[in-house]
Structure formats: structure tokens, C-alpha cells
Amino acid sequence: MDARVLDRDLAAGRRLMARLEAFAGFTDEPRRLTRLFLSEAHRRAAHAFIGWCGEAGLQAKIDAAGNVVARYEGRRAGAPALMLGSHIDTVRDAGSYDGNYGALAALAVVETLHAREERLDHAIEIVAFGDEEGVRFRTTLTGSRALAGDYPEDALDQRDTNGVSMREALIAFGGDPEQALFLRRKGVAAFVEAHIEQGPRLEAEGLPLGVVTAINGATRFEVGVDGVAGHAGATPMNLRRDALTAAAEMMLAIEERARREPDLVATVGRLEVWPGATNVIPGHVQFSIDIRAPADANRATAIADIEDQMNAIAVARRVSTSLIKTHEANAFVCDAGIIAGLTKAVEAIGLSPRLLPSGAGHDTMAMGALCPAGMLFVRCKGGVSHNPLESITVEDCAIGLKALTQFVHDFRAD
Ligand code: HGY
Ligand code: MN
Ligand code: MN
After folding, report:
1. How much distance in Å is there from the Cα of 317 to the middle of ligand 1?
2. d(CA 246, CA 223)
């Protein structure tokens, strides 16, 4: 079944692709896209987004938590809002579409309304969240949790690798750490996030769009392993307390445990070794763990098993470990009404909707604490994401925008 994509839809898709390409130019690192929360690149991207919002008839600003928030009034001032958006921070060496697609597609919907001088019964609010990836301060979802009234105050004391606290960076960015605690929104009827799938299902089934049913729960840890630094040449193997080889055995145990269940995933994404010299036995290691599953109970059991295995390895290798939980979000079930509305919108443009879960985390998980929330997925090539090879076609870009626009028109705030 092919979507009824008209020339004007494709033109809108091309405009959105061009804007995504321009937006990818706001980066902290040359020749690759890295846009960390509250960085110079984030600030420049946020101000560009605010400028584009202004041209589209939205009132836009940076809020106390570092998000860009924008409002397009309905026919009557103060009407309940349908909130759209996604995140504009990225991982290191990111693709151009993770998060950015949803934020800029939301803006493109309003641009079309504004061009037609069209107003709806409901207002439309757009949010470009600033801290979904959680790369800089090892927090995550702080922007969406702020709007949901669940701001993690302890995150403000987190420091980046240069020792800058999130509190200091937020103030420098134009945010307000004290006010971030009081951002819980009123008047939001629903939240919908368009996002690339970041997985292979839609492409494997030849479908451009999916409607998300649920989002995996996730837990993140910081692990410290302490052994004894020593001379690489003079220390016999049986006398070593090598923090790195102990950590390596722990990582393989984590991988082996995750492999035991089809929907359980565990990742060690970051590893730091001290003192990091060729001729020194590592005395200290720091690494991250990211564990996810559709069912919270399975994730909890896997975490308990992994902790037991890490402790056993530490004892056997005479090292000590510390395990600090830095993030936890339970599995999120998308709102049935939003699923139905998105399904209807996808059918209205001539497609058969594919309902599917999300292995990746999203701001929608946090927004669900505020209002009915759900997601529209757009196919991405090979399911590749968190990688500069991430890509979507202009047709799928246009189809996703068309379905989102259809949903916005069909939506009725109760
Ligand atoms: O990690 C995630 O699932 C998301 O991309 N932050
Ligand atoms: Mn994302
Ligand atoms: Mn991501």
C-alpha cells in the first residue's frame, strides 16, 4: 500500500530535509555532529530554532530547564495545547535525524498552518528538548521531566568531564536551575513525538511509518573498579590486581547475561582507564552500563544477576567495585487514544499502520507523566542510528510529516 504523496507533500519533505541538513551544522566538533546539552552548539541550534519559530508565527523562548518551548495559538487564546516535539541534543558523532527530525517536523507542521493563516480549535506547542541523550552530564530526560513536574534536582550537581556542573552550565545557557523545579505544564492535552525508528523492523517490512505501542524501560549505571596500579614489567601475573582485566571479565558477563533473553539488551558504551599508560597495570577503571527490557521485572532480575556476577569476579580478582545508578525509567505504555489517533492518521494517508515497541528511550516516556503521550516512527535505513550513517529518504520524511499533519488536524482536545 503506498501513501498518497502529492507533489506538495514531497516539496514539504524536501524543505524539511534541507532544514535538517542546515541544523546538523550546529555542532561542537568539526566534521561530525556532536551537540551536547547546554553547549555552544546547543545554544546556537536553540536560537536558530527560535528564529524559525518566530517566522512561523510561534512565540518561542528558552525555558528554565534549557528546552526551547514555542506556542502557536488556536482560534481562541488560551485553548488547551497539543504538544509536539523531540530532542535537539545528540550523542557524539551522531546522525542528523535522531531527535532533530521530530523537533523540526513539528515546526514544519505549524509552518504550513501559518502559511495558510489557519488556526485550529486547539493550540499547538512545540518543544525542542535539550537533554535527552544525557551524554554531557550523565543524566537524561531532564528537559521533559521538567515539563512533567518531575525534575531530577540532583542532576544539577552532575559535572561534565571539564568539571563544569549542570547548574553552572544551565545558568550560563540562560536557564534557571531554581525555576526548573517548577516547570510542570498546565493546559497540555497530549504530547506526540515523531522520531526515526532507530531499528530495522519498518525497513524489513517495507513500511515507511510505525505507531509506537510501548517504550522499553532502562537503567543506567556508573561502575568503578579499583585494583592496584603496578609496574607492567616487574609485577608477576599472579600478584596483580588489574582493574582493567577485572572490568573486562565483568563486561563479558554482562553481555552473556543479556544474551539469555531475546528482548533484553545491555551495553557498555564508555570506558575510562587510569592511569592509562602502556607500562602501568591499570589501578582504576570507570565504565557505564545501560540495561533495557520491555518488562520491568526482567530488567530488575537481570540487574540483580549482573551485580552478583560482578561481585564474584571482584572477589576472585581481589579488586573492589562501586555501582552507582545514574538513571532509571520504567517501561512506558503509550496512550491508547494517541495510538488510535496516529493509526487513523496513517490510514488516512493511505498506509497500513504497523504497531511496534521502541527499544530506544525517548522524551515521550517522561511526558507520559503529564498527559496522554505517544509516538510516530519513521523508517530509517538499516535501522542504523547513533551513527553518522543514520539516514531517511525524502519520501519517508514527507510521509512522516504528512501523517503528523493529519494527526494534528484530526486531534480534538477534550
Ligand atoms: O538511549 C536512548 O535510547 C536514546 O537515544 N537517548
Ligand atoms: Mn532520540
Ligand atoms: Mn538517541
Report:
1. 33
2. 12
Q: If you count them, how many residues does the chain have? A: 414
Contacts of range 2-5, beta carbons closer than 8 Å, 24 or more positions apart: 2/350, 2/351, 3/208, 3/349, 3/350, 3/351, 3/399, 3/402, 4/349, 4/350, 5/349, 5/395, 5/398, 5/399, 5/402
**22-77 residue pLDDT tens:** 999 999 999 999 999 999 999 999 999 999 999 999 999 999 999 999 999 999 88
Grid cell at residue 245:
582485566
Amino acid type, 244: L
* Beta pairing, strands 188-196 & 373-378: parallel
The H or E element containing residue 190 is strand 188-196
Q: Which residue has the cell 521531566?
A: 145
Write out pLDDT tens, residues 247-285: 999 999 999 999 999 989 999 999 999 999 999 999 999
What percent of the chain lies above the pLDDT cut of 70? 99
Q: DSSP string covering 299-361, please?
A: HHHHHHHHHHHHHHHHHHHT-EEEEEEEEEE--EEPPHHHHHHHHHHHHHTT---EEEEESS-
- How large is the average pLDDT for residues 376-385? 97
DSSP bridge partners of 226: 284, 320
Judge if the upstream peptide bond of residue 236 is cis by omega within 30 degrees of 0: no
**Beta bridge partner(s), residue 188:** 81
Rg (CA), the chain: 23
For the chain, list the domains and their CATH numbers: 7-215+331-410 (3.40.630.10), 217-329 (3.30.70.360)
CB 107 within 8 A of CB 151: no
The Å distance, Cα 392 to ligand 1 centre, comes to 18
Question: Relative to the CA of 98, which ligand 1 atom is closest?
Answer: 5
Distance between CA atoms of residues 65 and 13, nearest Å: 31
- Other beta carbons within 10 angstroms of residue 49's beta carbon come to 25
Q: What is the C-alpha to C-alpha distance for residues 80 and 61, in angstroms, rounded to an integer? A: 19
Q: How far is the CA of 220 from the centre of ligand 1 (A)?
A: 11
- For ligand 1, atom 4, name the residue with the nearest CA: 361
Q: How open is the CA angle 174-27-390, to the nearest 5 degrees?
A: 125
Contact 196, 103 (CB under 8 A): no
What would the grid cell of residue 130 be?
535539550
